[in-house]
TrEMBL record:
Protein name in the entry: 1-deoxy-D-xylulose 5-phosphate reductoisomerase
Binding annotation for NADPH: 10-13, 122, 124, 203
Residues annotated for 1-deoxy-D-xylulose 5-phosphate binding in this entry: 123, 149-150, 174, 197, 210, 215-216, 219
HAMAP family referenced in this protein's UniProt entry, alphabetically: DXP_reductoisom
Cofactor(s) required for function per UniProt: Mg(2+); Mn(2+)
Keywords linked to the UniProt accession: Isoprene biosynthesis, Magnesium, Manganese, Metal-binding, NADP, Oxidoreductase
Listed Pfam families: DXP_redisom_C, DXP_reductoisom, DXPR_C
Sequence ranges assigned to domain 1-deoxy-D-xylulose 5-phosphate reductoisomerase C-terminal in this UniProt record: 144-227
Gene from which this protein is expressed: dxr
EC code(s) of this entry: 1.1.1.267
Length: 386
């Protein structure tokens, strides 16, 4: 029985993880549930799953959660600090990082230091500080098990290949709702259009990132750290059907791919169950319904975020941390209709260029770079508001 801490249990990944756990009651139990603002759903989940601990990030909602769970054995905590403590509990066997954004970094560092395997959905952690996380995980002997579908695909292709060098990883991208759009068209797109992803139903931030190809950029950086590949060994291909989840090319030219319907429950289940494959009842891929799978070149001229991510990875140091912070501010401003769609990549580039470069950042440097880049980004938004 693996006892799981789910950070971000009320989100898209968190709720799907609970569905996976519900299908495998003899394999998994829920030890910790956490959410930032959604007190109602957190309470419902806690009453259903009876974890030992829950954390509500927003301190203003603590009293509500505490009152609703009084009379149960469940311990209620609040605040960001509590996240860093619950992941270290002896009773936690694996931590699923299903929270969004930079907020994942510090709890993940604490969990690794406490020797907990990480099922990593929170790609921002590796984008911000992959150079710190991966050596720390190796030192602690802790596996980082990817949940992101592309990285899960590559990870699944690499099972049994540990002695064989990788020549290239090929990340597939759906292209999002604006595939084929010109920059003139992108200048006009609205928040509502950007929130409609053709193949996946996900949280708001990653949905906007998918529309702007920032998500693929973040995934390029995530792949570089997870699989120890250079920027030149990572390729992105647009594959609108989202059936081939990604590919690995070995030094003999052979390519392995992992396929399946677009359903995050499979990569979640593979990470939680690793090294075992468990049964799953979800629908199967049927080639009759997909007579053609197509592939096309990604358009980095139009979707500049993807190019910026490669650049940040090439430059190293704290560049990807600066980019990530800028992007979190940019997405929030776009969602509040303060800036347009194309302004997001302008803002990202501005913060990469204006932020102070640190070649070999410590954890404190990452924390500081994140803060400074957010400040720069917020000033930019204030000046360039629509
Ligand atoms: P979501 O917005 O649906 O859920 C986010 C969760 O994190 C919620 O439970 C929320 O309460 C919590 N949260 C938000 N801000 C927080 C903060 N500051 N501190 C602590 N908790 C906070 O997001 P999601 O779509 O489930 O994505 C979660 C992570 O998984 C992201 O890093 C995303 O890139 C990654 N991911 C998601 C998908 C997907 O299909 N949704 C696929 C691949 C990777
Ligand atoms: Mg992905």
């Amino acid at each position: 029985m693996k006892r799981i801490a789910i950070l971000g249990s009320t989100g898209s990944i968190g709720t799907q993880a609970l569905e996976v756990i519900a299908e495998h009651p003899s394999e998994f139990s829920v030890e910790v549930l956490t959410a930032q603002n959604q007190a109602d759903l957190l309470i419902t989940q806690a009453l259903a799953w009876k974890p030992a601990h829950v954390v509500i990030g927003n301190a203003a909602k603590y009293a509500e959660v505490k009152a609703a769970l009084s009379g149960t054995e469940i311990q209620v905590h609040s605040g960001a600090q509590a996240l860093e403590e619950v992941v270290t509990l002896d009773s936690v066997d694996i931590v699923l990082t299903a929270l969004v954004g930079y907020a994942g970094l510090l709890p993940t560092v604490k969990a690794i230091k406490a020797g907990k395997p990480i099922a990593l959905a929170n790609k921002e952690t590796l984008v911000v500080a992959g150079a710190l996380i991966m050596p720390l995980a190796r030192e602690m002997g802790v596996p980082i098990l990817p949940v992101d579908s592309e990285h899960s695909a590559i990870f699944q292709c690499l099972v049994g290949e540990s002695h064989n060098p990788i020549e290239k990883v090929i990340l597939t991208a759906s292209g999002g709702p604006f595939r084929g759009f010109s920059r003139e068209q992108l200048a006009q797109v609205t928040r509502a259009q950007a929130l409609k992803h053709p193949n996946w139903s996900m949280g708001a931030k990653i949905t906007i990132d998918s529309a702007s190809l920032m998500n693929k950029g973040l995934e390029v950086i995530e792949a570089a750290w997870l699989f120890d590949v250079k920027p030149s060994e990572i390729e992105v291909v647009v594959h609108p059907q989202s059936i081939v989840h990604s590919l690995v090319q070995f030094t003999d030219g052979s390519i392995k791919a992992q396929l399946g319907l677009p359903d995050m429950k499979l990569p979640i289940q593979f990470a939680l169950g690793y090294p075992n494959r468990m049964n799953a009842s979800f629908p199967r891929f049927d080639f009759r319904q997909y007579p053609s799978l197509t592939f096309e070149q990604a358009d980095t001229q139009t979707f500049r975020n993807l190019g910026l991510a490669f650049q940040a990875l090439d430059n190293g140091g704290n560049q990807a941390c600066l980019l990530n912070a800028a992007n979190e501010v940019a997405v929030a401003a776009f969602l509040e209709d303060q800036i347009g769609f194309l302004a997001m990549s302008d803002l990202n580039e501005y913060c990469m260029n204006q932020g102070t470069f640190v070649a070999n950042p410590t954890l404190e440097d990452y924390i500081e770079s994140d803060k400074l880049s957010r400040e720069l980004a917020q000033e930019w938004v204030n000046k360039n508001r629509k």
